[in-house]
């Protein structure tokens, strides 16, 4: 799964990403992205799966699937970043391919906002 140094555990880390960061929503998930000021630590990722998603078994399954998908995308995040992935109720019945596509779309949108204006060379 995720390396221990990249797992978000404290409430203030979650709050920092959710309240002060930017957000990208998709039908199955919402990603909140923030940066720690002056910190060169590895990126940290946390997951929020509410009771609206389903019972405990379903919530844990969704969380495991998201953790697995995020493990392969961790190197895309800049150092010092905080990412919170919040699952929406449709995530419980979504196929892994759809979760992966929506996670990629949300990450692309959030990371694109970090780039300075005019820095893109691919025409987007």
Automatic annotation (TrEMBL):
Q: What name does UniProt use for this protein?
A: Ribonuclease P protein component
The protein's UniProt keywords, in alphabetical order, are: Endonuclease, Hydrolase, Nuclease, RNA-binding, tRNA processing
Question: What EC number(s) does the entry state?
Answer: 3.1.26.5
What biological function has been recorded for the protein in this entry? RNaseP catalyzes the removal of the 5'-leader sequence from pre-tRNA to produce the mature 5'-terminus. It can also cleave other RNA substrates such as 4.5S RNA. The protein component plays an auxiliary but essential role in vivo by binding to the 5'-leader sequence and broadening the substrate specificity of the ribozyme.
The yes or no answer to whether the keyword ATP-binding is present is no
Output the superkingdom of the source species.
Bacteria
The catalysed reaction is:
Endonucleolytic cleavage of RNA, removing 5'-extranucleotides from tRNA precursor
Which SUPFAM superfamilies does this entry report, sorted A to Z? Ribosomal protein S5 domain 2-like
Q: How does it assemble?
A: Consists of a catalytic RNA component (M1 or rnpB) and a protein subunit.
What gene is this protein a product of?
rnpA
Keyword field contains RNA-binding: yes
Pfam families in the record: Ribonuclease_P
């Amino acid at each position: 799964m995720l390396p221990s140094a990249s797992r978000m555990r404290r409430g203030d880390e979650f709050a920092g990403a959710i309240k002060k960061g930017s957000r990208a929503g998709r039908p199955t998930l919402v990603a909140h992205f923030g940066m720690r000021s002056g910190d060169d630590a590895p990126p940290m990722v946390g997951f929020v799966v509410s009771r609206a998603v389903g019972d405990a078994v379903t919530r844990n399954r969704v969380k495991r699937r998201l953790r697995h998908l995020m493990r392969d995308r961790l190197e895309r995040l800049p150092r010092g970043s905080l990412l919170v992935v919040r699952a929406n109720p449709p995530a419980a019945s979504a196929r892994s391919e759809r979760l992966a596509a929506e996670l990629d779309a949300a990450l692309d949108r959030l990371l694109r906002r970090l780039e300075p204006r005019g820095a893109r060379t691919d025409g987007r």
